[in-house]
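Q: Structure for this?
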Amino acid sequence: MSKTILTIDDSRMMREMLLMVLQGAGFNVVQAEDGVEGLEALSRSTPDVIITDINMPRMDGYGVIEGVRQDPRYRATPILVLSTESSPEKKQRARDAGATGWIVKPFQADTLLDVVRRVSA
Amino acid sequence: MDPMDAIKQTYFQECDELLASLEEGLLSLEAGEADSDTINAVFRAVHSVKGGAGAFGFDAMVSFAHVFETTLDAMRSGKLDPDPESVKLMLRAADVLADHVAAAKGEGAVDETRAHAMADELAALVAPEGGAPRASAAVAAPVADEGGADDWGFKPLKFGDDDPPASPAGWRLIMRPTKAMYAKGHDALLFLRELSRLGPTATTLDTSWLPNLDGLDPEESYCTWTAELPAETPEIAIRDIFDFVGDDCPIELTLTAAVSEEAPAAAPAAPIDIDALLNSVRTPTAEREALEGGAEKPAAAAPAADKAANKNAPAPAGGGATIRVDLERVDRMIDLVGELVINQAMLQQRVTESGAARSSTIAMGLDELEQLTREIQDSVMAIRAQPVKSVFQRMPRLVREAASATGKQVRLVMEGEGTEVDKTVIERLSDPITHMLRNAIDHGLESTEERIASGKQEEGTVRLAALHRSGRIVIEVSDDGKGINRPKVREIAVKKGLVAVDANLSDEEIDNLIFLPGFSTATSVSNLSGRGVGMDVVKRSIQALGGRITISSIPGKGSTFTLSLPLTLAVLDGMVVSVGAQTLVAPLTTIIETLRPKPEEVRRLGPRGAVLAVRGSHVPLIDIGVALGQRAEPIDPTQGVVLLVESEVGGRAALVADEIQGQRQVVIKSLEANFQRVEGVAAATILGDGRVALILDVDAVVEKVFSDRRDAAPLAKAS
Amino acid sequence: MKLPQILDLAAATTLRTQLMERRGQKLALDGGEVERLGGLCLQVLIAARNQWRVDGVDFRIVNPSPAFADGARLMGADASLGDAP
């Protein structure tokens, strides 16, 4: 059974790139354009892994992570942050919110898949 | 298309949107509307451009965007005020970023010097004293820059290359998961699995802190693990696995060989560190944590980024749902609806020819069909319609640049950005508007001194407006400058032989002289209009679109250029004429009037040339059939009809056709897509009776004839 | 008693509760369906084994699935949980 991944990013280009890489690796992909949509998507599908951007309109990635962790069904679901930023402060904040991993944009397809497999094995 | 190429195209599209919202945001900051939403949106725009640039390896763009982003981040976190000076700088930085995007598209180059200077200026904004610009970041990770420590301040043990451990050594990793680690989707299992992928791993489980089941909190972490890995495993590979989990799963990593045998040899480099680490291995947990405190936990001390400002940002009013559709599909549909319109017209004509009464049910049904067809056509065209905003939003930059090139103070006012027009037209609006704005700033507005002297505001105003008027789009460019200097325009036109010395010209006619080819009011070539193109080029490109351009000017008060264009290039209002056996369509916008010449109005010039006297001036007569190579000899103009047209190349001309069939709206079919380009013919259409008709390219016809007749100098004196 | 397929964070509390309900009984846990054994559930199982040992009652894991055995091995435990102190 292939795993489902929810990708949350306000950039169409990023969403398409993630879709191409993840689908190519056999994952089901559910897409959301911002944090609010991302949390809404949780009621329609049950992702095994969530990949979220940080800087987004309406609700940023930290809000997404906190929101996901508040949902009992997703307490243990790996949440990966995909961001161009990599400052320790930002990472710490994401970790405090409950993030599982951090992938720096731009990402290599292999790296992304590696991290996804690592957290979802 | 290669999927990456497709994504790259998406990225470029997105860049255009992002750059637009960047500029929009900065402009509203400039206008003093500095709320956190705006600053966040501006930051996000630069951030996203950077993100994609990295993905495609546009390194120069990434580094510029990074500096820009850092400055915006300072503004976002309140460390930098969005004062007018900073925002102005950022507007110019946005221009440089746009240059980078254009360069990435292959549409230009980045001025490296300018980009570097701009980056320096941006960086200086954040560090006005010239001190450390990002003090917080520098303090947060003091060890990070030495020796490849990771973000979390783990200080790697370094052994000099000169004295490697002599005996086979191994890595010993102790990992201590915390409750928080499990709570964030991690699992000790996953880390150990990753470690085992690096090489043969011997893992020992320490359950000494584990209570029995009755006292167990099932979500608390009690166990620790020790993993032994081969010495050749790269340290960075081990640390990478624990990179993000950080303090949620503290690790200790040592080389075991050093513990047993090599410690004395390696010690001189950093004896204290190693001793401390050795101690820590043997120290009970509580003490060890005390040892690890302080410097080893830099991240915990830096929750500075805790500005929740953007988290609860109100949702923007959600517009209607939208879908993205491949433009080709829309184009195809527009094409098909065009065919439908033609088909419907053919059907109607056949029914009429069959003698059916207008009141018959068939004819009435056809009327309804016609109505429906028109509505479908309008609706389909509306799909491809876009607001002129995409063109308008490029103009503030242009105005800024033109203002700085001329040293004038200019305020740009834009109206009607939401006015919609067909995509085919939008793409071709940019050049004319650019020219007209440049012209308004360069020639229309006075210098600051002149303005002060004449009691005007120092800052000149240029207004760019779009509106719909009677089924066409109207673009107005006006300035509050000095207006057209008519005596000077007239003088230049006479000097250049464009009008006769004694010509009796109205104000309007004088104003229109500036549209004549070769006319340039600038006595010296200025920075802006020094490209050898003048308003004649503007007029020409407008007419190529089936548009018209007019000018009105009040001395001392300013000028207004008004251009009116069809809403689409898919249909055209044309005059259908016969030339020999051919049916041709002349765009109505080029035709001034139609007339039947009287013999006394035609005057022969040379063996083949002829002119027509029209209200006192002489206009060259051009036989359309000859010009298109359909017949060798011109017909007698008095036996045909004359279309008096306005062409850019040679002013007015009288085109001779055999007869006029009528006016109608035709659906344009690109000729080049189906046939080779034909000189003098712009496109083709299919008429109601199914015949193909060529659409005349009036300019090309006139130009061709003029270049064929090099001896036609006196003809240019048309007014 | 059969162990569930996924033994992760979300399963740990339930697993402990179920085991506590069987306290004092001889127990053979069937690990044949386990697809994933995480650290927290490993803790629960070892704590239970220790508890049963203190109580003097027989506690065994039987029929471990490959995933169970693999997980236990990676985490330094034996599939029978026999080698921990």
